[in-house]
Amino acid sequence: MTDTDITTTAGADWAAWQKSWDRQQEWYMPDREERFRIMLDMVEALVGPAPRVLDLACGTGSITARLLARFPEATSTGVDLDPALLAIAEGSFAGDERVSFVTADLKDPDWPTKLLYDSYDAVLTATALHWLHREPLAALYGQVAELVRDGGVFLNADHMIDDSTPRINAAERAQRHARMDQAKADGALDWSEWWQLAAKDPVLAGPTARRFEIYGEHADGDAPSAQWHARVLREKGFGEARPVWCSPSDTLLLALK
Ligand SMILES: C[S@@+](CC[C@H](N)C(=O)[O-])C[C@H]1O[C@@H](n2cnc3c(N)ncnc32)[C@H](O)[C@@H]1O
């Protein structure tokens, strides 16, 4: 099935939507699966193969899917605000008692009160916290530090920019965008084309309209450096924090409580 014939009138095809979401995200991050693999390596190394996980800004539940495929004894709660991505997540994991979802705005100071538990072995997030500006992100990191148990971990895979290397950044960006242009010419869907497709799905049309009322096309945020993330996470209560993987544009940052 191609992305363009994914929509049906007989109920949404959740597996097809998951695949289509992955393809769209991989257009931006060809090494996305590598980031997930190292994230789960670090989870296993530090908290073992049966963790209680919070999938922060979970979207369609991409981290949860990879977590459970590798660690069947794990459990996961996904938190997000997007009704369309949450509809795909809920449809995909329906009937799986290891998984639950919570609708919450991570900028709301009370969002942790919506969770079933007040302590997690691992809080995991990917390609999401650049939707927040530094100040709300620092406040969120304080809440995350309270939710992670002593000895537990926080892992954030995201676009993190070092402003002290502007020429390197510009060259890397130009190369990355040239490759994206080529992939688009070969048929890849970008963010806005993907959402146009979701709006055509009879099941996703309503939630998609609501997500545009919440976010518009995309929320505005910052992509501070890995050093900024590590420093703020230590200030907020983590004992250690540093990158455990990086590409020319992205970093996977690990913080240990
Ligand atoms: C690009 S998606 C990534 C989803 C998933 N982690 C993945 O890797 O496929 C970014 C997610 O962050 C969520 N997000 C952004 N700001 C948020 C907020 N303030 N509260 C809750 N979720 C938020 C969006 O709704 C979206 O699902």
What do these coordinates show?
There is one protein chain. The chain has 9 helices and 7 strands; from the N terminus they run H-H-E-H-E-H-E-E-H-E-H-H-H-H-E-E. The protein has 257 residues and is α/β, with parallel strands linked by helices. The chain has a single domain, classed as Vaccinia Virus protein VP39 (Rossmann fold, 3-Layer(aba) Sandwich). It has a 7-stranded mixed β-sheet, with helices on both faces. The chain is globular and about 50 Å long. The mean pLDDT is 95. S-adenosylmethionine binds next to helix 3.
Supply database-style keywords.
45% helix, Rossmann fold, 19% strand, 257 residues, alpha/beta, 9 helices, binds S-adenosylmethionine, seven-stranded mixed sheet
SSE blueprint:
Elements: H1 14-28, H2 32-47, E1 52-56, H3 62-70, E2 75-80, H4 83-92, E3 99-103, E4 120-126, H5 134-147, E5 148-159, H6 166-185, H7 191-200, H8 205-215, H9 226-235, E6 240-246, E7 250-256
Parallel strand pairs: 1-2, 1-4, 2-3, 4-5
Antiparallel strand pairs: 5-7, 6-7
Helix pairs in contact: 1-4, 4-8, 7-8
The structure holds S-adenosylmethionine.
S-adenosylmethionine (SAM) is lined by residues 25, 57-59, 62-63, 80-82, 85, 105-107, 126-128, 131, 219.
